[in-house]
Specification:
By secondary structure, this protein is an alpha+beta fold. It has a single domain, classed as NADH Oxidase (3-Layer(aba) Sandwich), CATH 3.40.109. Helix 2 packs across helix 7. The longest helix has 25 residues. The chain is globular and about 60 Å long. Bound molecules: flavin mononucleotide.
Length: 213
């Protein structure tokens, strides 16, 4: 059997509305999705977010309550929470520098590059730095959605939740993190999901592509 092309995976996936609570995603599939998130590119390679992988039913029901009761959070088997750095700090950037030194040696320009980055980021508002970090989490979410589809695991990208409530439930503030995105993983309830039989809705190519030759 020929493997599915990427666009076939993208057509197969959809923002699942009803998951089957009886089916759990196997650990190796969850691991493949987590690895894709770890490998996602980020600006200057800072990877300014952390991932929480939650199976605990009580915590997931508290989070669902902070997300308008969206049932995928509790019906799925795993909940991924993308939590971005609340700010860039010298320590956080120095850790990235050290990671580079460990992997590649202390190359010329490395220190200068990250000193420039610190000079640009550290004087900025925490909020501006947080939104920059959050954008990096969105890139990883995109990669995660594709990785889940490749594993034939259903998922729902979610920003429809109260981030402050989720931060409090997970103790993220104390860790210098802020919740950005949720992504429940599970398996579609083929009989119970109203969205499954519906056509995909996408703009035509000419509405979003300008060709400049
Ligand atoms: C960043 C982001 C946040 C979203 N938040 C929610 C959400 O909170 N709840 C939900 O059911 N769907 C959410 N969606 C799903 C979108 O509505 C959906 O991806 C879009 O309509 C395209 O449909 P498809 O993913 O089924 O192809 C979100 C999607 C993205 C990319």
């Amino acid at each position: 059997m020929t493997p599915k092309a990427l666009n076939d995976h993208l057509t197969w996936r959809y923002a699942t509305k009803k998951m089957d609570p009886a089916k759990a995603v196997p650990q190796e599939k969850v691991d493949a999705i987590i690895e894709a998130i770890r490998m996602a590119p980020t600006s200057s390679g800072t990877q300014p977010f952390e991932l929480l992988v939650i199976t605990n039913a009580e915590i997931r029901s508290q989070i669902a309550a902070a997300a308008s009761g969206q049932a995928q959070i509790t019906d799925g088997s795993h909940l991924l929470v993308f939590a971005a750095w609340d700010n860039y700090t010298a320590d956080r950037i120095d850790e990235v520098v050290q990671l580079n030194v460990d992997a590649r040696g202390d190359l010329p320009m490395l220190q200068a590059y990250y000193e420039n980055l610190k000079a640009a980021y550290l004087p900025r508002d925490a909020e501006e730095n947080y939104t920059h970090a959050a954008r990096q989490a969105y890139i990883a979410l995109g990669v995660a959605l594709v990785a889940a589809a490749e594993q034939e695991v259903d998922s729902t990208p979610m920003e429809g939740f109260d981030p402050e409530a989720v931060d409090a439930i997970l103790g993220l503030k104390e860790r210098g993190l802020r919740s950005v995105l949720l992504m429940p993983l599970g398996y579609r309830d083929t009989a119970g999901d109203w969205l499954l039989p519906m056509e995909k809705v996408r703009k035509p190519r000419e509405a979003i592509v300008t060709q400049i030759a």
